[in-house]
């Protein structure tokens, strides 16, 4: 029904996330923008605050580290390619570890699948020996477009309230 | 980050007194001492003489709208609770139980009528009053409950919703501290009722808190080089992109604080707000002179000493979308020598349509935030400064940073005597460092005062 080249939907989603991670780790940002996301993408990283356990959620529904659509992501990607983008020149070295992929909802009617995965980004600059680490859960919706998955919705749920890296000049 | 050895024993580094003397000499020449941007003794004295003596920003009243709403805040490195008490009054309470010192506030934000210590259960009303001591009759029959309420900041005042506190019992009132700066703050906080959207961005940066404070005093010289990538992709303000004819004014001599204001002659620009937003403004709250400046304002920025900055930007996060007026308020919190935590609150006019406020927020994130297309390049540059400041060689060569732009014959910046507001005001404000010198003079004066 999904027309996937894999033993399971989960495995095909995993493959997609690994391909995406490779593009981002390799800083192939224009290709990421062209091939990975749909033009109606909703991409957000909500701000987290420490709250009492009785609170429904620690994540804000009105404040974000990134709140993006296709156009604003295009701006970010194009800026990062600019010769004067000092935050990434020399570039930070980022390695994304993607794991614990699980399919939470399958909706073949609109060709979409909801998945969750864990993300660890190991980030080094210059001669750093202590990495900046970013740990998060991603909640993604993928859509089947011309026989391939594309990302149509992503919420990155960080484990951090204070972010221990100086700038988010990378895509999570 | 390398350890600073200046506070250690057996080192050959000079004392803080020598540094402050050399700083005084440097200021005479329009320069500042590089070493103060990464130094243990300087940092400790800043906590004692600057953060514990000045009026320090705590938060905006819109962050705690309801009785019982609270937020964790800090003055320097000292923990405080910013809370609206059961009487509707704003309190700034030191977050430490009077019994054994435990922090009472374990969440960054929430709503409560009481703070109860998790250690032995001492309980305080959100006014700070001690109202519960378990086993009091058996254990503390003579304890004076009234005397053991939470310590509050000795001075707390609000200016148009911005709450400041001073830990100095002898501090002048806030109006005196802000001085002529209030004339300018009125443009941003009185013309419209502003509100904070959501929670602040918080992130750690390996640079000294003074570097961004000074930058927001008016380092307009760095924009064409430092922010070229963002301007190239077309998301800068109309003035930065050269689409509007404008003049940049640098304003100093307003009580030790400073501002930079773009003016677009004859235009109702209002920092990029459209008419449906500006019609919710309150021109009657300003003088005609203030209103005239507000109406022609493009990008505006400034710092209230020591560490509260803002930028008001008419811009977008995407050249295909409309420009909106985005206000980013930020505080540069000292963490340790050469390291700080940035706090960034995005604000919008309270009475603007919700859809517009959502766009204000998105543009704020896309321009000035942890991921902001402008901000990220500042950070990428600033984090190299502490390493140089900590160099042994810095002292050997008496390394200074240069703030002499605009001095001497035939420089472009010149004082504009026709400016209607207070202060010393320079045209071609991107071509003078007088604003940033004001920061370092204020810093030097404040840190030296008690000694």
Automatic annotation (TrEMBL), chain A:
Provide a Gene Ontology MF annotation, just one: dioxygenase activity
Q: Which domain of life is it from?
A: Archaea
What InterPro entries does its record include? Answer: NTF2-like_dom_sf (IPR032710), Rng_hydr_dOase-bsu (IPR000391)
Coiled-coil ranges from the UniProt annotation: none
The protein's UniProt keywords, in alphabetical order, are: Dioxygenase, Oxidoreductase
Extract the Gene3D superfamilies matched here: 3.10.450.50
What SUPFAM superfamilies would the database entry show? NTF2-like
Q: Name one GO biological process term.
A: 3-phenylpropionate catabolic process
Pfam families reported for this sequence: Ring_hydroxyl_B
Give yes or no: UniProt keyword Oxidoreductase: yes
- Name of the protein described by the UniProt record: Phenylpropionate dioxygenase
């Amino acid at each position: 029904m999904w027309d996937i080249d894999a033993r399971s939907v989960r495995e095909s989603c995993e493959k997609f996330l690994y391909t995406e991670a490779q593009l981002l780790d390799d800083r192939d940002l224009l290709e990421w923008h062209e091939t990975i996301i749909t033009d109606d993408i909703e991409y957000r990283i909500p701000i987290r605050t420490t709250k009492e356990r009785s609170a429904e959620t620690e994540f804000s529904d009105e404040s974000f580290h990134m709140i993006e659509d296709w156009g604003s992501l295009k701006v970010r990607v194009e800026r990062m390619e600019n010769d004067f983008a000092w935050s990434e020149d020399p570039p930070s070295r980022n390695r994304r570890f993607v794991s614990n992929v699980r399919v939470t909802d399958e909706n073949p009617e609109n060709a979409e699948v909801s998945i969750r995965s864990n993300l660890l980004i190991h980030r080094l600059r210059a001669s750093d020996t202590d990495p900046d680490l970013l740990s998060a859960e991603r909640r993604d919706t993928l859509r089947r477009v011309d026989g391939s998955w594309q990302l149509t919705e992503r919420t990155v749920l960080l484990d951090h309230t204070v972010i221990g890296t100086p700038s988010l000049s990378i895509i999570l | 980050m390398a350890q600073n050895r200046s506070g250690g024993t057996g080192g050959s580094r000079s004392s803080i007194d020598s540094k402050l003397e050399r700083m005084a000499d440097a200021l005479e020449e329009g320069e500042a001492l590089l070493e103060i941007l990464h130094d243990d003794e300087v940092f400790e004295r800043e906590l004692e003489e600057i953060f514990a003596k000045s009026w320090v920003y705590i938060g905006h009243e819109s962050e705690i709208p309801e009785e019982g709403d609270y937020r964790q805040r800090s003055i320097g490195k000292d923990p405080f609770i910013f809370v609206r008490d059961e009487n509707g009054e704003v309190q700034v309470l030191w977050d430490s139980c009077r019994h054994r010192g435990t922090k009472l506030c374990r969440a960054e934000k929430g709503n409560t009528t009481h703070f109860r210590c998790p250690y032995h259960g001492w309980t305080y009303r959100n006014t700070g009053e001690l109202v519960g001591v378990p086993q009091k009759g058996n254990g503390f029959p003579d304890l004076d409950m009234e005397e053991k309420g939470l310590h509050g900041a000795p001075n707390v005042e609000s200016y148009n919703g911005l709450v400041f506190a001073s830990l100095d019992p002898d501090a002048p009132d806030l109006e005196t501290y802000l001085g002529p700066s209030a004339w300018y703050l009125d443009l941003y906080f009185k013309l419209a009722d502003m509100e904070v959207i959501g929670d602040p961005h918080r992130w750690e940066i390996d640079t000294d808190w003074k570097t961004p404070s000074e930058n927001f005093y008016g380092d307009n010289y760095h924009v064409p080089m430092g922010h070229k990538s963002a301007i190239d992709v077309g998301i800068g303000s109309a003035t930065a992109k050269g689409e509007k004819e404008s003049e940049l004014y640098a304003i100093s001599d307003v009580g030790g604080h400073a501002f930079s204001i773009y003016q677009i002659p004859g235009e109702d620009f209002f920092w990029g707000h459209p008419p449906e937003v500006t019609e919710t403004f309150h021109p009657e709250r300003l003088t005609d002179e203030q209103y005239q400046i507000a109406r022609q304002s493009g990008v505006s920025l400034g710092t209230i000493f020591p560490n509260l900055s803002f930028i008001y930007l008419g811009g977008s996060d995407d050249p295909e979308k409309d420009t909106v007026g985005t206000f980013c308020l930020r505080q540069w919190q000292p963490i340790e020598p050469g390291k700080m935590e940035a706090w960034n609150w995005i604000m919008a006019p309270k009475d603007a349509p919700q859809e517009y406020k959502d766009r204000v927020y998105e543009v704020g994130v896309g321009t000035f935030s942890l991921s902001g297309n402008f901000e990220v390049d500042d950070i990428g540059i600033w984090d190299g400064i502490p390493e140089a400041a900590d160099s042994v060689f810095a002292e050997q060569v008496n390394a200074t940073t240069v703030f002499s732009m605009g001095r001497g014959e035939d420089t472009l910046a010149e004082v504009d005597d026709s400016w209607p507001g207070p202060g010393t005001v320079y045209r071609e404000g991107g071509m003078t460092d007088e604003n940033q010198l004001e920061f370092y003079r204020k810093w030097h004066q404040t840190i030296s005062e008690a000694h």
